[in-house]
Design goal:
The structure holds 2 protein chains of 2 kinds. Chain A is mainly beta. Chain A has one domain: Jelly Rolls (Sandwich), CATH 2.60.120. A 5-stranded antiparallel beta sheet of chain A has the order 3-1-9-4-7, with no helix packed on it. A 4-stranded antiparallel beta sheet of chain A has the order 2-8-5-6, with no helix packed on it. Chain A starts with a strand and ends with a strand. Chain B is mainly beta. Chain B has 2 domains: 83 residues, no CATH class; 148 residues, no CATH class. In chain B, 12% of the residues lie in helices and 33% in strands. In chain B, strands 1, 2, 3, 8, 13, 16, 17 and 18 form an 8-stranded mixed beta sheet that branches. Chain B has a 6-stranded antiparallel beta sheet with strand order 5-4-7-14-9-12, with no helix packed on it. In chain B, a hairpin with a 4-residue loop joins β4 and β5. The longest helix of chain B is centred in the last third of the chain and has 13 residues. The chains are: A mainly beta, B mainly beta. The interface between A and B is medium-sized, with 20 and 16 residues.
Chain lengths: 133, 263
């Protein structure tokens, strides 16, 4: 049984109020990536979120059932909102669970309601597991 | 006293049984001593692949390792041995720290490979280059490049003298994953029990023993040669498993095998 906990970070200085974090990093991963795609049979459990930035910054966790198509259909599965400038850390008692049933699914991270040219950052702790609980 | 310790390694004066599906036979050892008792962990480090190494891809092409020890997305390695790390220059085979000389017939390496991140696929081929995992009477060859025939994050085996094993690793995520290897191992001094009744009792599970199935579904000639040269075995390359009511037949056969043993 596999259980792997890793942290994903993203920062941006957006020119518009909405967009994707396209340069994700992780101490567990070499280089950058823009989304996370896992093998079928696994689940991604997002246990903790940290946001930093200006008031109104919204972190959106998106999920698609097929990232291999030319225009994946992304659905928001979770939104976190920074009510005032600063940072917030949220440790979830129950994780956000994202299943990978075909291996074509993916998770990406977006921002919304960001102030143009302001710095926004987030990090999430993701557990990758093939266990049911 | 239990057969294994907290690492799952066999304690002294306990038995180790290695079952080989290819022949339906087993090798039975008594662990006389563990040379590295109390020092079982070997933090090997990154997977021994260099930056720029060409790897196979699950998409059918080849792909280049972006950094030392890093598996790129949807890639898998060929057979890997673990070269000598600093201070291990005097090993028998500098390209493979687990490769034992035939002359070390009284030694076995019981190796547990912990792979991080644990989502990494891993399999082992005995000998290197020979796929041993199969499905439905051999109709399908499985392994690191298949839907099954591998484990993730962990594999356990016992290295027999004179055989080079090949480990393969695969990454079926979209991430460039640095792969870290930790070994928990036992270097055993072993002997094969000389009492045929004891062997029968071990193989019928009346006497406790640690059982491990070696992934040998095809008895490669190099395995036969190693078993012959190291232990003096011949066909059927070990002790056959018999039913409890076949004790007399088993004892007779085991006695004949024991006459020619070298260890």
């Amino acid at each position: 049984m596999v259980r792997w906990l890793f942290t994903v970070n993203g920062c941006a200085t957006p020119s518009s109020s909405t967009g994707d974090f396209t340069t994700l990093t992780s101490p567990s991963v070499y280089g950058n990536f823009s989304y996370i795609r896992l093998p079928k049979g696994f689940k991604a459990k997002i246990w903790a979120k940290r946001l930093a930035g200006t008031a109104g910054f919204m972190l959106v966790i998106n999920y698609t059932t097929d990232v291999t198509v030319s225009q994946p259909n992304w659905t928001a599965v979770d939104v976190e909102y920074l009510a005032s400038a600063g940072s917030i850390e949220l440790d979830k008692r129950r994780p956000i669970v994202i299943p990978f049933r075909t291996g074509n699914e993916a998770i990406k991270f977006s921002y919304s309601n960001a102030t143009a040219n302001s710095n926004i950052c987030f990090s999430v702790d993701i557990e990758v597991t093939d266990e049911d609980e | 006293m239990s057969v294994v310790d907290r690492f799952g390694l066999v304690n002294e004066n306990q038995y180790l049984t290695l079952y080989m599906p290819a022949t339906g036979t087993a090798l039975v050892f008594r662990v006389v001593s563990r040379v590295n008792k109390g020092f079982e962990v070997l933090d090997y480090g990154l997977l021994p692949i260099s930056s720029g190494a060409s790897l196979s891809s699950y998409t059918g092409t080849t792909i280049t390792a972006p950094a030392a020890g890093t598996l790129p997305p949807y890639s898998y390695t060929g057979d890997i041995q673990f070269p000598a790390i600093t201070g291990f220059d005097n090993v028998f085979d500098k390209s493979d720290i687990w490769h034992l000389s035939i002359d070390n017939r009284d030694r076995l390496f019981h190796v547990k490979v912990f792979v991080h991140p644990p989502i990494i696929r891993v399999d082992v081929r005995i000998p290197t280059g020979v796929t041993q995992t199969k499905f439905q009477a051999g109709r399908v060859v499985t392994g690191i490049d298949s839907a099954t025939g591998f484990s993730r994050g962990f594999i356990e085996t016992v290295h027999l003298p004179g055989i080079v094993y090949g480990y393969r690793f695969g990454n079926d995520t979209n991430l460039n994953l640095p792969v870290y290897i930790r070994f928990v191992y036992g270097e055993y001094i072993v002997e094969i029990p000389k009492n045929p009744e004891l062997i029968f009792n071990i193989l019928t599970k009346r006497t406790p023993s640690y059982w491990l199935t070696l992934p040998i579904t095809y008895m490669d000639p190099s395995i036969q040669s190693a078993l012959r040269d190291a232990y003096g075995l011949s066909d059927p390359w070990g002790f056959k498993l018999y039913r409890e009511d076949e004790k007399d037949k088993a004892i007779k056969e085991y006695s004949n095998i024991l006459k020619n043993l070298k260890v």
